[in-house]
Every structure is written in C-alpha cells, then in structure tokens.
Amino acid sequence: MFFIGIQTNNCCSIFVNDRSISMSNFDAVPTMEELPNNRVGALYEACYKFLQKRQAMNDIASCIMYNSNSTVLFESQKVCPTLVTSYMASVGADGGTSFVNAIAALKPIVDKNDDSKYVPLAIFMSDGECQDNGSTALLKSIVASHPEFKLSAVGLGKSDHGVLKDFASIGKGIFVKSDINIDSLVSAYEKILPGFKK
Description:
Helix content is about 35%, strand content about 25%. It is α/β, with parallel strands linked by helices. The chain has a single domain, classed as 3-Layer(aba) Sandwich (Rossmann fold), CATH 3.40.50.410. The chain has a six-stranded mixed sheet, sandwiched between helices. Helix 1 links the parallel strand 1 and strand 2 (about 60-65). The longest helix has 16 residues, at about 40-55. The protein starts with 9 loop residues before the first strand and ends in a 6-residue tail after the last helix.
C-alpha cells in the first residue's frame, strides 16, 4: 500500500479534472443519465463512484476544473457523491489545456487546508499531453511545504502522459493509465482508493 502514514487521518480529496475540448469526445460515455454523454461525463461518473466509497468517512472534498484556465468548482465540502451531480454535471468541455494553471489553482487549496485534520490528497486527471511550463517546479513547492500532501495522476488514452507521470512521482502517489471507456476510468480511480483508507 502506498501513502504510508496517513491511515489514521481523514482526507481532503482534491479532484483536478481536465475539461479541455478533447474531453467532449463521445468515445467514453457515462452510464448515469444526468451526466454529459462524453469523456467528461465518464470522468464525472468515476468521481461519483469514488466519493460513494469515501462517503462513510469524515472527509472533505474540493474540485478544480481546468482547460486553458482553472476554476475552483467547490472547496472543503463534506464528502458526498451528490457533489458531482450538483456541481460537476453542469460543466462542459471546451478550450485548451494548461497543467501549470491547474497546479497553480491547487496550491491555495492545499495551503488553506488544515493538514492536522485532513490529509490533502489530489487526483490529477488528463486525457492528453501538455508542456511542463513550470508545473513540476510548482508542484515540488507544494510538496515541500506540506509533507503529508500526496498527488496521484490518471491518464486517459494512448498518450505517453510524461508530465502526469512526473506529477505522480513528485507527489509521492501513483500514476494510473486508463483505456478510453467508462469501466477502465472507474477502475483507475478505484486503484487510487487504497491511499485514502484510514
């Protein structure tokens, strides 16, 4: 099991979700009718099922949606799968991709978190590649300031996902590659779950 040393703490789950234009492709679709019928909807269902499995814990959750820009969709909310249907479901996919802007949005969430109460654990997801542009250096600064912080990454599709692999290595988490279908994406998030167990 990875993430050694956090099992006695509650978690702050931080979703960092790709909503760039490629996430509007219809090659991966959710089974939940209330979600967008494309890759981003499949991502939301994976988040929904992840939160279902954490619902019994005294956790909180935050969500960043990013394309060329980044938006904090919700922050420090009590874990509940309806966070997906209430917040994520209305956000579509468009625009480019900027990993550095996503990591920049992550930093203040982690900085404001009370690490003594909630271990900050981020899941960074993308279906493509992006230049580093200082994102790994910024992530290193977050890790240096918050020793308990962990980041795992999910790469959807056939890209090499080199930067995502770097993120997971720097963040002391794991990288999980997902095929382009809902079952594989849900499974990828389930593989990250052991690091969140108390």
